[in-house]
Amino acid sequence: MIIVTRTSETSDAYPKVISRPHPNVRVITCKDDLQWVLQKRTGGSAERPWRAVGYFRTRNALTRACAALCGRSLESPTAMKDLEALPENFIAG
Questions:
Q1: What is the reported pTM?
Q2: How far apart are CA 5 and CA 90, in angstroms?
Q3: Strand pairing of 25-29 and 36-41?
Q4: Is residue 70 within 8 Å of 82, Cβ to Cβ?
Q5: Residue of 61, 51, 59, 57 lying closest to 82 (CA atoms)
Q6: 41 beta partners
Q7: Where does the chain show beta strands of DSSP type E?
Q8: Pick from 52, 24, 55, 58: which is nearest to 39 by CA?
Q9: Distance separating alpha carbons of residues 31 and 17, to the nearest angstrom
Q10: What is the pLDDT along the chain (93 residues), one digit of tens a residue?
């Protein structure tokens, strides 16, 4: 018997995290591989602390939204470079 477990996109254990530009902000690939999701850590439950701020299919829109959300508080010097290395448009998997 094969048991498949899926981790929620809002979980700390979600495996498709692309970048963490700030301790309270992360970028993931959605569970269906259709788009990137910008998320912010909220005061939600310990099991589901992340909430979506926006959904993106273009790198430019994602990087603009991430920069606006994080402002000058980008803590990871490579975070924006990680995002800039993404393809120009999301390529569904």
A1: 0.85
A2: 25
A3: antiparallel
A4: no
A5: 59
A6: 50
A7: 17-22, 25-29, 36-41, 50-56
A8: 52
A9: 11
A10: 555 456 789 998 999 999 998 889 999 999 999 999 999 998 766 677 899 999 999 999 999 999 898 876 655 667 778 888 999 999 876
